[in-house]
């Protein structure tokens, strides 16, 4: 028997995952591995092995491996699910190519066997978090963004670092990104592509209404606060693209980072830069091609 005794599955909410589920079920049956599914998703796990319906907490506690079946959004959800545990997450592409997924469906049997035999590495990923004015904690692996509500004015946000005001942005949104999120919202505002192994946070603005529109790269240990200024409209708080609440003038959001908050499985078949080149269609200057 290998190192994995139970595998937990996290499914894309809409995409068809049947082939991948059958592949995992066949592997699990041959090795006497228990298949765990979230209670809200277990009815979609139609396979020869009877899956065990569990809560999110039980899945994290029992699974030696979590497999995300979908795209980057599903992978981010799986990472938030296992946050601060040591359970590694394997991303499987079901549909479009993503940054976080490690294998395609046809590569699953070899990938699962390699993991079971401990022939893999884990890549720690930083999380960024805040606490909403009502006391609700939020955590993301891509980004936290304060986004203007259409028709309600700009996002006027002050950036305070180590207790000192650095800049005031008036923009469509102000985004705090992890290195993982550097290829998401941060990339769309002209921010840099950052290796996921770098320890830092990026702060930038979308469509800034000022001469200063550069992003900041902060240490994970520096204290960061986002102050919603009196001239700001209401702002939606997006956490990995999901609206978790609203803030308004006078609110202040402390932002913290957590090192190695999730462990992503890497098998060595490709690199972050290869995935970035393909996903973002990176090309060189025409003069040197």
Write up what this structure looks like.
This protein has 289 residues and is of the alpha/beta class. Helix content is 18%, strand content 38%. The protein folds into 2 domains: 6-120 and 267-288, Rossmann fold (3-Layer(aba) Sandwich); 127-259, Tumour Suppressor Smad4, CATH 2.60.200. It has helices at residues 18-31, 56-62, 72-81, 108-116, 185-188, 272-280, and strands at 6-11, 34-38, 52-54, 65-70, 88-93, 103-104, 121-131, 137-140, 143-148, 155-161, 164-171, 173-177, 201-206, 216-218, 224-228, 235-239, 242-247, 252-266. The strands form 2 sheets. Strands 1, 2, 3, 4, 5, 6, 7, 8, 10, 11, 15 and 18 form a 12-stranded mixed beta sheet that branches. A 6-stranded antiparallel beta sheet has the order 14-13-12-9-16-17. α3 links the parallel β4 and β5 (88-93). The chain is globular, with a radius of gyration of 20 Å. The chain starts with 5 loop residues before the first strand and ends in a 9-residue tail after the last helix.
What's this entry about, in short?
By secondary structure, the protein is of the alpha/beta class. It has helices at residues 18-31, 56-62, 72-81, 108-116, 185-188, 272-280, and strands at 6-11, 34-38, 52-54, 65-70, 88-93, 103-104, 121-131, 137-140, 143-148, 155-161, 164-171, 173-177, 201-206, 216-218, 224-228, 235-239, 242-247, 252-266.
């Amino acid at each position: 028997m290998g190192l994995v005794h139970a595998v937990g599955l996290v499914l894309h909410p809409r995409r068809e995952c049947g082939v991948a589920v059958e592949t995992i079920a066949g592997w699990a049956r041959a090795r006497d591995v228990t298949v765990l599914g979230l209670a809200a998703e277990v009815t979609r796990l139609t396979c020869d092995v009877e899956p065990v319906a569990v809560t999110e907490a039980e899945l994290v506690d029992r699974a030696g491996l979590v497999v995300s079946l979908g795209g980057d959004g599903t992978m981010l959800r799986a990472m938030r699910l296992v946050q601060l545990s040591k359970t590694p997450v394997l991303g499987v592409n079901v549909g479009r190519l993503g940054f976080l997924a490690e294998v395609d469906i046809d590569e699953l049997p070899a990938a699962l066997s390699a993991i079971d035999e401990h022939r893999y590495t884990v890549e720690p990923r930083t999380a960024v978090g805040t606490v909403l004015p009502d006391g609700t904690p939020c955590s993301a692996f891509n980004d936290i963004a304060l986004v203007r509500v259409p028709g309600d004015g700009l996002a006027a946000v002050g950036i305070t670092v180590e207790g000192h005001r650095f800049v005031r942005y008036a923009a469509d949104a102000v985004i705090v990104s992890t290195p993982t999120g550097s290829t998401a919202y941060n990339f769309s505002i002209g921010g840099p592509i950052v290796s996921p192994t770098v320890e830092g946070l990026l702060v930038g603005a979308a469509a800034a209404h000022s001469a200063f529109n550069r992003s900041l790269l902060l240490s994970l240990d520096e204290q960061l606060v986002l102050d919603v200024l009196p001239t700001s409209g209401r702002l939606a708080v997006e956490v990995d693209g999901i609206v978790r609440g609203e803030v308004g003038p006078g609110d202040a959001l402390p932002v913290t980072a957590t090192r190695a908050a999730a462990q992503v499985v890497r098998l060595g078949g490709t690199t972050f830069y290869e995935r970035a080149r393909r996903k973002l269609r990176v090309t060189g200057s025409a003069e040197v091609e």
